[in-house]
Amino acid sequence: MNIWTIMTYELRRLFRSRSMLLNMFLLPMVLIFLLGASLSGVVGVKSATKIEPVRVAVVNPAGEGQSAMIAAFVKLPEIQKVIVPQDVESRQAAESGLRTGKYGYAVIVPDGFDREVQQGGKAQLEFILGKNHTDNLAAGTAFDNFLSTVNYKQAAVAALGPQAMAVEASSSENHEAVKLGDLNNGGRTYTASQFYAASMLLMFLLYSGMTVTNSLFSEKDNHTLHRINSMPVKASELFIGKMLGVGIVSIIQCLAIILLSDWLFGVYWGNRPGLLLLFCLLMIIASMTLSIVVSLFSKTAASARSIISVVTVCMTFISGGMAPLPDSWVNTIGAFTINHWVLQAIVRMMLHSELSQLAPNLLMISVICLVMLCGAIFSYWKVGYHE
Amino acid sequence: MNKILAIAWNMVKRTIASRTGMITYILLPSIVVAAIISVTGGVEGDKPTVLYSNMDTGAAGQHLLAELENTGDYKLVARSDETALREGIIQQEGAAGISIPAQYTAQLAHGQQPELSVYELRASETSILVKMKVNTIAGEILETARTVNAVNGGAGDAEAKLGAILKQAELHNVGSTRTDYDLYPRQTLGVITGLTLMFLMGLVTSTVSLIMDDRKGRTMMRMFSAPVRSYEIALGNFLGSCMVGILQIAVVLTLGKWVLRYDYEVPMYLYFLVLAAFMLVSMGIASTVAGLVRNPGNAGMLNALILTPTCMLGGCFWPISVMPDYMQKAANFVPQKWAIQAVDIAAAGGSWNELWLPFAVLGLMAAVLLAIGSAILRPNEAGISA
């Protein structure tokens, strides 16, 4: 009965705090939105951003060796959207222009470029990279695409004879030769924003440890723990009641994130809602027990809080949830984080994987939870919760 | 002035004079930041892995892979079939996967337009670039196949001819050479600056939480009963946390530059100036929040509420240029964006002609936020405990 009273009071206290509510329900939504909006919109890079045209210094030798092909290419209207060609006298002028930032990119056409191309010989343009990475990429891609078309044409002429030259280029620009593969085994199409939604959910479940710390230390800091201890309440009842309260809030938070992200952003969470909840529950247990151990052994609320936030951010980061990390990392060092196992399981559920593929993850996270639970019980038995 | 300095000095002493203070405020964060710098900087040389499954027996599939290999940007790893490829992508064994369907070359030779599939678990720079690259190559192959069919008119061995042309194209008779004078900043510099900014912002929060503790413990009320003005208390506290922050920046930069030998490509004093300007802004943010929220625990949480989203928006984790247009506009309101821009300009060798803008924006943000923060700090009121 005491446990019940303490738990309801804890719940009431948590739900009355406005910043608590902001942090638990608004922040995850904002983060999922930010991640989804900034990263999943990238699929068509060109349409996502308006590229400023790059000023390209074109060094085209005068007289006989001048390349009419390049001169015509840089005048095409669709190319002029990407680059602003500027005729430059010499290589030196182009180079010094690059260094001062006058040009973003430089293209040096060798003497007799056209002749070599028509005779099937070696013809190489020289590109000099400028100061801006994006500009380099944009200008380089424009010229490279042109060169590769010429290259295939030359190869075709060499193999088929001059009549290959006469074949008109089709308007292949609009035709996508590649489609985005569907990772799914049935069910809805998987999108990249789902991955980030899952990783954010896990980060916030880990953060629920922070609530544990706040709840445990607020009584100590306000010296109300003395008063509670003087009541006919067992210390263990108080402790269990508090943890139950925090646990229930975390479960509500988890449900809110899942449901709201589904309704607002259309994030699909997979075909096994029961198992998803089980994984989340285990995650909550793991993070709560972790912060119980930390809070019991640290002297001040500030140090406990900083340890838990460092652990949370590090684990999310290492498991690849924040910024894309190299893949070799994710499977080696990432495996030491709790996030990794649950994240993988959630992604698999989103993709409708078989139950047998989920079993190892479930086993792993259960073992982690069991170990942490033992640790929490042990540290409570050793240290206890009193002033 | 003396009073301000006394308060500031006291603040510094309280934070870092003890051994634990030294460890928690200076040593630990610097080591974390320095470790991240060295890890991220070291990762740079690694090529991202791209998985593929080639069911095609003809020349076109091989040509596609050869061309990808030729770019030198990716490590290609084979998988036995499409199912294994998908499994590999889900296991995050590669950043992207390419599946070449069976009879790819034969279909091309017969004038059809077979489609390749590219798999990704999440959008990343690699997967986007791979998709673009594969699209270009596949488009060229398609075009070549069309040419072959047009010339042949359906007669003769189109598949063999296509193969011959692709073999010839692999020689890259027409192509380009790149001359690189290392004029542009390295890609990881942005990420490293971003992560440093994130941790710096978190650190500033911790010093501001000391001010909160003062108010909660009613120390500030007592200070106020001495002949000290409200603005002197506010200024002294800012100056104190400013000194601590500058010390933190100095230690982080020293560790990164001279111990781990990371090449920042920026004059150290400039980098220091950028970080210091950013620190002032984040101090302004933290103190504004501290003024708004009276409970220290909640203030810490609210700072987290601001820290992560602004870092994402400001381009700490990925380059701003990959974000959609309206997000890029929104990023202008975030100090991180301007700090990263300043570092970028400096790394590209820009002079103060270009550098003044980000610094001016940062300075303005700092001034406004600090003014608001000191106006609503109100040291004569005790904190309300909730």
TrEMBL record, chain A:
Location of the protein in the cell: Cell membrane
Transmembrane segments: 195-217, 238-260, 275-297, 304-323, 362-381
Annotated GO CC locations: plasma membrane
Topology within the bilayer: Multi-pass membrane protein
Keyword field contains Transit peptide: no
Descriptive protein name: ABC-2 type transport system permease protein
Record's keyword annotation contains Lyase: no
InterPro entries the UniProt entry points to: ABC-2_transporter_component, ABC2_TM
GO molecular function: ABC-type transporter activity
Top-rank taxon: Bacteria
Signal peptide: none
TrEMBL record, chain B:
ABC transmembrane type-2 domain ranges (all copies): 155-380
Record key words, sorted: Cell membrane, Membrane, Transmembrane, Transmembrane helix, Transport
GO molecular function, one term: ABC-type transporter activity
Localization terms from the record: Cell membrane
Protein's membrane topology: Multi-pass membrane protein
Pfam families: ABC2_membrane_3
Transmembrane segment boundaries: 21-43, 189-212, 233-256, 268-293, 300-320, 355-377
PROSITE patterns, per database record: ABC_TM2
One GO cellular component term noted in the UniProt record for this chain: plasma membrane
UniProt similarity note: Belongs to the ABC-2 integral membrane protein family.
Name of the protein in question: ABC transporter
